Amino acid sequence: MALLSIRNLTTVFHAEEGEIKACDQVSMDIPAGKTIGLIGETGCGKSVLGMSILRLLPRNAVIRGEIYYKDQDVLKMNGDQLKRLRGNEIALLPQSPSTSLNPVLKIGFQIAEGLHLHRKTKWEQAWEKAVEMLDFLKLPEPEKRVQEYPHQLSGGMKQRALAAASITGNPSLLIADEPTKGLDAVLRAQVVGVLRQLARETGAAMLLITHDLKVAASLCDQIAVMYAGEILEQGAAEQVLKDPVHPYTKGLLASLPEHGLHPIPGYSPSLLDVPAGCKFHQRCSLARDLCAEKCPPLQVINGVQVRCFFGDQSGEPQQELHNRDLQEAAV
Ligand SMILES: Nc1ncnc2c1ncn2[C@@H]1O[C@H](COP(=O)(O)OP(=O)(O)OP(=O)(O)O)[C@@H](O)[C@H]1O
Ligand code: NI
Prior knowledge:
By secondary structure, this protein is an alpha/beta fold.
């Protein structure tokens, strides 16, 4: 059994404009210690999926389906269980150090606080642990840094401090939502280094939400590609990023500068009014009548799970994947 198993997760926002289906029947497994990259265009539901796992969504959101963490359904947890889950089991790595670190509190305090609150560690020991964690994350002069305030640290140092603060509870799963967004190349490389170290040396699994396919390629064991709330393709990172099956994944890769910057024609559909059939059919060069009528089931093609009738290009619609096969093939 995977560390985290998501089954048929659907997250709907009840908004003034109508019902926004941000996640639609998402199933995904995150094995212990593995890094899964979640990629897809802006607004496709990546962050909502991440926040659904932690149940950190506004009141107008309704989550259906199952999210098993170590065999316990997160969607059935009570307040205390959720608190424990967020404090000790699943950590959210915040995006931006400038907004996530408190400018008026010492770095050491901000790291020690989590230990003191969640683990009931005495302050003195929590401070020592903070120094250890900064040292572990290769921050130079950790004893000095814990006494400093965020503005005294460089961007890369702040990233490390933030990473240290998020793993104080010794989590088994990290959720990192666009940790490299808006960073210059140098800082991006540093953050990638910190993430790699977190994953390798803490042994924690990671759900890495990113637009940056290069970052995904360098860190992830597996990749899930999301489009209009659905996972369209998921499997081994090598396979999905080098030899994808789904026309959407192919389009995403072709739109990269190194592949000639060929954008996918058209736009993602509004989540208020998604098209019938395959959600990608209006933008897909392989689409036929069937694609506008029926939603393709998940099936295994070339060892990856794909939601496409014609992804193998043989011209014959594929057989539906049985539930048992899905579990065996599950990423
Ligand atoms: N509180 C909310 N109320 C209503 N709709 C919401 C709410 N939060 C998110 N949404 C909608 O859910 C959809 C998915 O948003 P989400 O933030 O998950 O996208 P994303 O894939 O993370 O995009 P990006 O790459 O830009 O971060 C969007 O259409 C968004 O407008
Ligand atoms: Ni997002």
